[in-house]
Design goal:
The protein has 309 residues and is of the alpha/beta class. It is built from ten helices and twelve strands. It has helices at 46-54, 74-77, 95-105, 112-122, 138-150, 168-184, 195-201, 219-224, 252-261, 276-297; strands at 2-11, 20-30, 35-39, 61-66, 80-83, 156-160, 187-191, 204-209, 212-218, 229-236, 242-248, 264-272. Helix 4 (112-122) packs across helix 5 (138-150). The protein is globular and about 75 Å long.
């Protein structure tokens, strides 16, 4: 549904400065009628990638296509819904005027009033259509931004940090809407720092680190790459202090012998659920270790003839 091929992007903060590469030949696919999470730490390249996908900026190399290989155009845009991380809203407009503005830009057809009331109802903003946006709280701003994204019943929904600024009720509502859109057959691509939400919602994952894709594939496959562990409950025979520690399955027998010798009594054993947060950190750590080993193992270049050694 969305295909990113060999995308690279450079930026230059000052005209006289050397260009800095922020995306390095990244490729991935967002599959049709599935929910794909896009994760990475701050500065990893997520927002730059989303801006390239949406045509807000142009890549220096590579391409982005939609559906059956079509580039972004007016017809494709009419099938996209987008919620930016920090929506820029015209505060002098009422909620209804704001939705009408986006309806007209997107070339909406049919009954605007019915579509607007439905979108406002879905984000729990019914009854405020005549309030100006300057009266809205941060959470309400996020909700009206989502209503705008849902207004034309898009085939593709792109959400940049959709739960940012929302209270617990708002986060629950946002997750419910993502589930509803998934059930409707919408292709969803969303970024988030809340990895528990990503694990709960995403069929697939794209993991990016320093402008490079570390992983692309099913969410559960990444989690399954991490070895299962036990959480051990312990009590010290001398002080009576209680403690816990994690232990790899294959190390359990050896670790129990060590604990016994130290005067630790086992009080409980439980399977430790491997969460996406753990899998994500393990993936990043493995990438860092591999890069370090490559630097250490790289042979030094022999000095050129005539140069000092």
């Amino acid at each position: 549904m969305i295909t990113v091929r060999h995308l690279s992007k450079f930026f230059r903060s000052q005209f006289y400065e050397r260009r800095k590469q922020v995306l390095f030949d990244i490729s991935f696919e967002v599959k049709a009628r599935r929910t794909t999470g896009f994760i990475g730490v701050n500065g990893s390249g997520k927002t730059t990638t989303l801006k390239c996908i949406l045509g807000f900026i142009f890549p220096d190399a590579g391409e982005v296509t939609f559906f059956a290989g079509e580039p972004l155009n007016k017809k494709i845009r009419s099938k996209l819904g987008y919620l930016p991380e920090r929506p820029y809203l015209y505060e002098h407009l009422t909620a209804l005027e704001f939705l009408r503005f986006h309806w007209n830009i997107a070339g909406g057809r049919g009954d605007f009033q019915a579509a607007a009331m439905q979108a406002l109802g879905r984000v729990n903003l019914q009854g405020i259509e005549d309030q100006t946006l300057r009266q809205f709280s941060k959470g309400m701003m996020q909700r009206i931004g989502l209503a705008q994204a849902l207004l034309l019943s898009p085939e593709i929904l792109i959400l940049d940090e959709p739960t940012s600024g929302l209270d617990p009720d708002g986060r629950f509502m946002m997750k419910e809407i993502i589930r509803q859109e998934r059930a409707r057959g919408t292709t969803i691509f969303f970024s988030s720092h809340f990895l528990n939400d990503v694990q709960e919602l995403a069929d697939d994952l794209v993991v990016i680190e320093k402008g490079k894709v570390l992983y692309t594939g099913p969410t559960m496959n990444l989690i399954a790459q991490n070895r299962p562990r036990y959480r051990l409950g312990l009590r010290d025979t001398r002080s009576g202090d209680l403690s816990e520690e994690l232990c790899e399955v294959e190390d359990l027998s050896r670790r129990l012998n060590e604990l016994h010798q130290r005067g630790q009594i086992l009080t409980s054993v439980a399977n430790e659920h491997v969460a996406l947060e753990v899998a994500f950190q393990t993936l990043r750590k493995g990438q860092t270790n591999a890069a370090t080993e490559a630097m250490v193992e790289a042979p030094a270049e022999a000095p050129a003839r005539g140069e000092a050694g």
